[in-house]
TrEMBL record:
NCBIfam families: DEAH_box_HrpB
Region: Disordered, residue numbers: 1-31
Biased composition (Low complexity): 1-11
Pfam families: DEAD, Helicase_C, HrpB_C, WHD_HA2
UniProt-listed Gene3D superfamilies: 1.20.120.1080, P-loop containing nucleotide triphosphate hydrolases (3.40.50.300)
Provenance organism: Nannocystis exedens
Comp. bias (Basic residues): 12-24
Keywords associated with the record: ATP-binding, Helicase, Hydrolase, Nucleotide-binding
Stated name of the protein: ATP-dependent helicase HrpB
Annotated ranges, domain Helicase ATP-binding: 56-220
Length: 886
């Protein structure tokens, strides 16, 4: 068929399609209830055709080109074919990278159909675990992630002449990494390799500059204006429920004279199923055939959504129809405004899809699907102000996903320092550090950044490095089949309905899930399961089994192991893959098991988990929720029981042996125990062991807080010793001084080897301090504690800071003395407090002789009147003092 006749056939098919449609309000009773798949040829003219010659010419001059064209311009189907027909691959293959499996398969089918060939001839596709290629295939559509695997198998891509990165504006991490690796290859071993980057909305200048940097020739940049008809946009506001909002929008379109197909954008398969159920009756009544379109459908059902149909179609699609797949005949778009975008579980690093609002650029692309061939309409299920507040573009995945897989690829290609790698857009430093730390913990790379033998084995599986480690560990422990099943479950959507409650108590959620999958496989029993995700998990498990090393595919040995032993081995393998996700169960709180997490933090075990009684477990799948009364909460959806001794056996480098010490205030002593901890979690505690040296440190802290006076029998004596030493130092330069700081220093020294206040008191702090200043008797000679008075009484000498030394005694005790006592070798007179018989001071003086001469006569008269029974001689210098009191 020539292009002209193909174009005519297309017009005839569209005309037939239009005549079979029933006007709004009625149903086409004569038409079939499902659409036949009819082989067609691509239309002869698409907007991109005008620049195909420019693209070919640019690549003949330069090894790189950037092609910018809006959705629906035909770049995905036409550009690769034009490159092939121009011979730019030089007899080698052309790889076309697609962001989604569905897009890779459907685009390959469409291009093959345009050639009148079956898939697997000139044109083929290859996605994870699935391919349709043959020895004659020269144009191969693949998902972005497969480029890395091809580079591992052949680092020079010797069988590839051109690589086309399609829909690069979606900025998936695999696309970013692929572009950087291809650029490095082109600058090295393959200068002849041609790179084409195609985008619908991304500014191509940045990509062109990146590919031109340091190159001999500048990267070409070709733009196709496309062809866009006006689209009338209405914002209907956010509905209470998305599926009911779709029905109301559909009814509005029909009531206002819908003439054509309707494309509805919904976040995922679950929302699509709900909307299909809600709209089924209305659609049937108005002659609309309902078609879902998402990646979980079988290929035949996906094809029905995009093929021409005699009836009007209501296509309920994920964002795959936003740019990757073009559907003819769309007259109106209903945009739910939501999508599930790639993210990663911050606890595991495993990729996930999170529900979120689309960007303004995505909203524009969705609306544009209604204006490809004629004026159209777009009804948005959100408000205008909501649209205006959304970001212009969705942030690139490199800023929001786990980088461990990409980093392992880089290390495998010999990049020891990923931070210095020539990224198209460098990832955040924190994300790089986290990814590197995880790879080291999993044993995938060594401290120098070299891939270990274990890391090479992990790369053999198209999985996140965690799950690659799970696969390797499962093989090593003799349970490869169970490991494949667990990896499939953890890499795909949950097979349980939302809100499902645990029906038993078991060792691991994945074990219960695997048992139910086996029932589904053997008997078709779908009870308690989501059929689509469950069958997908079975498919991935079977594909992983085929990816095992040949000597591990025979499961007879595994099945010969007792069931409990097999399950224990799988749980050990899961521990190797999730070593820092260990949790210790605490008490139950409000129906949830409270968990303490390794490394700090807390979580709750969700009601859907079957691990209800195990004290130790792994948090395999975690959800972060925000609750009004509790704030942010971490909920563990899938768990696995482990034994604490496994941590010691498998992860001994992470085990910390520490002595836990505490102060018993009542007993005034240090008490402690020997502890084994895993990332902060207590594994074992032994009391009664000999306390370590650190016990003295704790005693020292408590003793210094109590102060030195707590450890002497007479605190006043300690204060006196400090004052005496200060007095001596004031008169004898260089003499040692006992200060508060010195007392604390000696107290701290005495704590060494001791663990209680009682031991400290027995160590005689006062004696230790006295020994420091009493050497040679100088202290007692210069600053005595007592002086002998004439009557034989020993009077205590008082020393106080910033005061002269003094003593107090009865006035009569000084009879017989013409001069008061002196200290410091006779240099310093003591301040004398001369007391009356009642103990009150009659005079305070340092000049006893002057007192006798000037004041004593008057004092004597007064004392004689008050105390007539006491002797008050006229001449105190010669009088005998009274005997000391006993």
């Amino acid at each position: 068929m020539t292009p002209r006749t193909a174009h005519a056939a297309g017009r005839a098919a569209r005309k037939t399609h239009a005549t079979r449609r029933k006007p709004a309000g009625g149903r086409d009773r004569g038409g079939p209830l499902c659409c036949p798949v009819v082989a067609t040829r691509a239309p002869s003219q698409l907007p991109i055709d005008e620049v195909l010659g420019d693209i070919v010419a640019a690549l003949q001059r330069s090894p790189c080109a950037v092609v910018e064209a809006p959705p629906g311009a035909g770049k995905t189907t036409r550009v690769p074919l034009a490159l092939l027909q121009a011979g730019l691959a030089g007899g080698r293959e052309i790889l076309v990278l697609q962001p989604r499996r569905l897009a890779a398969r459907m685009t390959a089918a469409r291009v093959a159909e345009s050639l009148g060939e079956p898939l697997g001839a000139t044109v083929g596709y290859q996605v994870r675990f699935e391919s349709a290629v043959g020895p004659e295939t020269r144009l191969r559509f693949i998902t972005e992630g497969l480029l890395g695997r091809k580079l591992h198998a052949d680092p020079q891509l010797r069988d590839v002449g051109v690589v086309v990165l399609d829909e690069f504006h979606e900025r998936h991490i695999d696309g970013d990494l692929g572009l950087a690796l291809l650029r490095a290859l082109q600058r090295g071993a393959r200068p002849d390799l041609k790179i084409v980057v195609m985008s619908a909305t991304l500014d191509g200048a940045a990509v062109a500059a990146y590919l031109s940097e340091g190159a001999a020739t500048e990267c070409a940049r070709i733009t196709s204006a496309g062809r866009m008809f006006p689209v009338a946009i209405e914002h209907l506001g956010e509905p209470n429920e998305l599926h009911s909002g779709v029905l109301r929008a559909l009814a509005k379109l029909v009531d206002e004279g819908l003439d054509g197909d309707v494309l509805v954008f919904l976040p995922g398969a679950r929302e699509i199923a709900r909307a299909a159920e809600t709209c089924a009756g209305f659609a049937a009544h108005h002659g609309l055939q309902v078609f879902p379109l998402h990646g979980e459908l079988p290929p035949a059902e996906q094809d029905l959504a995009v093929r021409p149909c005699p009836q009007r179609k209501l296509i309920l699609s994920t964002n795959v129809a936003e740019t990757s797949v073009t559907i003819d005949g769309i007259a109106a778009v209903i945009d739910g405004g939501l999508a599930r975008v790639a993210a990663h579980d911050p606890w595991t690093g495993i990729p996930t899809l999170q529900l979120g609002k689309i960007s303004r650029a995505s909203a524009a692309q969705r609306a544009g699907r209604a204006g490809r061939t004629r004026p159209g309409r777009c009804l948005r299920l959100y408000a205008q102000h909501d649209h205006d507040r959304r970001p212009e573009h969705t942030p690139p995945e490199i800023h929001r996903v786990d980088l461990a897989g990409a980093l392992l690829d880089l290390h495998a290609f010999g990049v020891a320092e990923p931070a210095a790698f020539a990224w198209f857009e460098a990832p955040p430093a924190a994300a790089l550090q986290a990814g590197e730390a995880l790879l080291r913990r999993l044993g995938a790379i060594d401290p120098a950044g070299r891939v270990t033998p274990l890391g090479r084995r992990m790369l053999a599986f198209p999985l996140h490095p965690r799950l690659g480690r799970l696969m390797c560990e499962g093989v090593d422990r003799g349970v490869p089949g169970l490991a494949c099943g667990a990896a499939a479950l953890l890499s795909e959507r949950s097979i349980r309905p939302a809100g499902a409650l645990a029906s038993c108590d078991a060792d691991a959620d994945v074990l219960v899930d695997l048992a139910d999958l086996e029932k589904l496989r053997r008997r078709g029993d779908e009870r308690g399961l989501l059929p689509g995700p469950a069958r997908r998990a079975l498919q991935v498990r079977d594909q992983l089994l085929r990816a095992l090393p040949h000597d591990s595919r025979d499961r007879s040995k595994e099945l010969g192991i007792k069931e409990q032993e097999r399950e224990d081995r799988l749980r050990m393998a899961l521990l190797a893959a999730f070593p820092e996700r260990v949790a210790q169960a605490r008490e139950d709180v409000g129906g949830f098991r409270a968990l303490a997490l390794a490394g700090g933090g807390a979580a709750r075990l969700g009601p859907g988990s079957v691990v209800r009684t195990a004290p130790w477990l792994l948090a395999l799948e975690v959800e972060q929720r925000r609750e009004a009364d509790r704030g942010a909460q971490v909920l563990v959806r899938s768990a696995c029981a482990i034994e604490p001794e496994w941590l010691i056996d498998q992860l001994c480098d992470e085990i910390e042996e520490r002595d836990e010490l505490q102060w018993n205030a009542a007993r005034e002593r240090v008490e402690g125990a020997r502890e084994l901890r895993y990332m902060g979690l207590l594994l074992e505690r032994t009391t009664g062991a000999k306390l370590p040296p650190a016990a003295s440190e704790l005693l020292r802290t408590q003793a210094l807080a109590a102060g030195p006076e707590r450890f002497v029998g007479d605190p006043e004596a300690l204060r006196g010793l400090m004052a005496r030493s200060a007095f001596v130092a004031a008169h004898v330069p260089g003499a040692p001084v006992i200060t508060e700081a010195v007392a604390r220093e000696v107290l701290a020294e005495l704590c060494e080897g001791r663990t209680s206040f009682a031991e400290l008191r027995a160590a005689d702090l006062y004696g230790q301090l006295l020994a420091r200043v009493a050497g040679g008797g100088g202290l007692e000679r210069l600053a005595p504690t007592h002086v002998q008075l004439p009557g034989g009484r020993r009077a205590a000498v008082h020393y106080e800071p910033d005061k002269p030394p003094w003593l107090a005694s009865r006035l009569q005790d000084f009879f017989g003395m013409s001069r008061g006592p002196h200290i410091a070798g006779g240099k310093v007179p003591l301040v004398l407090h001369l007391l009356a018989p009642n103990g009150r001071a009659e005079q305070v003086t340092t000049d006893l002789a002057g007192f006798w001469d000037r004041h004593y006569p008057e004092v004597r008269k007064a004392l004689m009147r008050r105390y007539p029974r006491h002797s008050w001689p006229e001449d105190p210098r010669t009088a005998a003092p009274p005997a000391p009191r006993r």
